[in-house]
Specification:
single chain; about 290 residues; alpha+beta; Double-stranded beta-helix; 2 domains; 4-stranded antiparallel sheet; 7 helices; 18 strands; binds fe (ii) ion
């Protein structure tokens, strides 16, 4: 997969004031937009995310670095392809990364077009994913309360969360159920469709987190609607097929990558230069 790059025509151009029509054309056509050579800062990245999104989403496992933006902290191992927050009931439409400081080696971000993947996937790999999948996972009290504090419109911090807020949140999503455990952890079940329709291009895409990491969370169990657990072999076949269709972004200082998170899956090669790398994330809903 060749990576298409949108270059600044002059280094004083900044991404906070960039023409969004060009950005949107690239996201609709390619599924992503990689901006290189622009003048950038965390604040300008945050401004860009806010201009593109009607509402922003946070991942509570990460620390908040600027309005709408969080620092990426996911260990140093390679990370498999996934959509961001793919195992939550509200998956952000748009995902952005800002590379304030690039690593001198390794840690390329990987991207894979789920729309092309779906078109090319042979029936034997695709058939388990022609049905809904039930994700089961347990979150610590801190994790589920932080998530709820971000998503529930009436509360703003984890210490305000009460059981009634959990009930209200679950009532908003038919495909989501949860049980509160004796140690205050929460075991939830979420039914997902592994194929999504992009809010940008309306293309159908294989876009989910089945190949993804669980760095900050307990690994989930994936069960097919038929009741069987998705096998290691089924996951491995998918991984090999997707890897052969995956592109790599070798970051430059100040790059910004915007992804259609309902179409493009992303991951990361192993980090070999953790000391220098500074990558920030922002995401949200466009409708
Ligand atoms: Fe991610």
């Amino acid at each position: 997969m060749n990576i298409s790059i949108t270059h600044a025509t002059d280094s004083s151009e900044n991404t906070g004031t960039i023409d969004l029509n060009n950005v949107m054309d690239s996201i609709i056509g390619n599924g992503y937009c990689l901006l290189r050579g622009y003048s950038n800062s965390l604040e300008q990245f945050s401004t860009l995310i806010n201009r593109l999104c009607k509402s922003v989403t946070y991942d509570p496992a990460r620390s908040i670095s600027a309005e709408s933006v969080q620092k990426v902290d996911a260990g140093v191992e390679a990370i498999g392809l996934h959509i961001e927050n793919g195992n939550t009931p509200r998956v952000p439409h748009l995902l952005g990364f800002y590379c304030r400081k690039a690593a001198s080696s390794g840690s390329q971000t990987t991207i894979c077009d789920g729309s092309a993947l779906l078109d090319q996937m042979p029936a034997e790999i695709r058939s388990p994913f022609d049905q809904h999948i039930v994700v089961t996972r347990t979150l610590s009290e801190e994790q589920w309360k932080s998530y709820l504090a971000q998503e529930h419109p009436e509360i703003h911090s984890a210490d305000q969360v009460k059981e009634i807020h959990l009930k209200q949140m679950l009532a908003m999503h038919d495909d989501h159920s949860a049980t509160l455990n004796a140690d205050s952890s929460l075991t939830y079940k979420l039914t997902i469709d592994p194929v999504r329709r992009s809010p940008f291009s309306a293309n159908r895409a294989f876009a989910n987190a089945v190949l993804g990491p669980s760095f900050n969370y307990q690994p989930p169990e994936y069960r097919l609607a038929s009741g069987e657990i998705l096998s290691k072999e089924q996951i491995e076949n998918l991984r090999e097929f997707a890897e052969a269709r995956t592109g790599e972004i070798a970051w430059h200082d100040s790059d910004i990558l915007l992804l259609d998170n309902w179409r493009m899956m992303h991951g990361r090669r192993a980090i070999t230069d953790a000391a220098n790398r500074e990558l920030f994330i922002g995401m949200g809903m466009v409708q």
